[in-house]
Amino acid sequence: MKSWPYSDAKPLFSSVSREEEEKIQEETSATIRVIPVVVLDDSAAAAPLADALAEAGLPCAEITLRTAAGAAAIGIMAQRRNLLVGAGTVLDAGQAEHAAQAGARFIVSPGFDEEVVRRCQELSVPVLPGAATATEIQRARRAGLRVVKFFPAETLGGVGALDALSAPFPDMRFVPTGGIGPANLQPYLARSVVLAVGGSWMVPRQLIADRDWAQVTRLARDAARLAAQSGPPPPPVPAPLATGSPGERTEPAPRERSQAS
Question: What digits encode the pLDDT tens for the residues 58-81?
């Protein structure tokens, strides 16, 4: 099995062989240190947005389910061999399943939800739950995960908070998201516990609505350049792998109320 954001359950690109897909994954994973977080109001913008991101060197997108166009956009972008597309703002297990059916290759949620994680593990779809406290990180770890989204990163205290929160968890990796842009991107990527950073500064909602693909491409290219200057991603996530499986994890934590929020 491969760690987040990949899964061994089935080819991510159904029109190619496993060997071809693994080559695509290897080439893609070397460049994914910035994940565009996209809000689309019209699924017709999905195809040109995919072209703009791929051309800019950011072959990945998290399409949030905050709008009715999200699921359809995922289906369109999932057809692109040169783009890894996932679903964001996934709030329950039903949404996770529908997103996977639409073609999402990874699932992102704003917080840790045991049912979302369990359903993604059953579907062998990598899942990236949000975590803001040590309690949530421990619950994610107990569920078999080794990568979580640190969210909302800047509101929680930025790089300093991440340093403090990650210190007790040497086998965990993080994807900080929330309030991150060109000015503070590199300090996050310099951390050995950070796999990638999520952000929407290169895919502003208004630019997408205006179909200003030239500007989106420029912003995305600048983001890719900044990420490249930060060096390669950290070593692979220690076992158990980020996708988890019933054989790799203990029973989910009790449903007591988290102290996170």
Answer: 999 999 999 999 999 999 999 998
134, 81, 76, 140: which is closest to 108 by C-alpha?
140
In a domain, 86, yes or no: yes
- Give the number of other Cβ atoms within 10 Å of residue 42's Cβ: 14
Query: Whole-prediction pTM value?
Result: 0.83
Q: Torsion angle of alpha carbons 65, 69, 72, 73, nearest 10°?
A: -80
Domain count within the chain: 1
Spell out where the chain has E strands.
34-38, 60-64, 84-88, 107-109, 127-131, 147-150, 173-174, 197-199
**CATH number of the domain within which 189 lies:** 3.20.20.70
**Can you tell me whether residue 100 is helix, strand or coil?**
helix
62 is catalytic: yes
Label residue 147 left, alpha or beta by phi (over 0 means left) and psi (-120 to 50 means alpha). beta
Give residue 90's domain range.
18-229
Q: Which of 2, 114, 136, 149 is catalytic?
A: 149
Of 21, 62, 114, 136, which is the active-site residue?
62
C-alpha to C-alpha distance for 141 and 129, rounded to whole angstroms: 11
- What letter would DSSP give residue 94? H
Residue 12, in any domain of the structure: no
Tell me: the pLDDT tens digits for 142-188?
999 999 999 999 999 999 999 999 999 999 999 999 999 999 999 99
In a domain, 257, yes or no: no
Q: Is residue 112 domain-resident? A: yes
CB atoms inside a 10 Å sphere around CB 30? 11
Q: Would you say 254 and 130 are in contact if contact means Cβ atoms under 8 Å apart? A: no
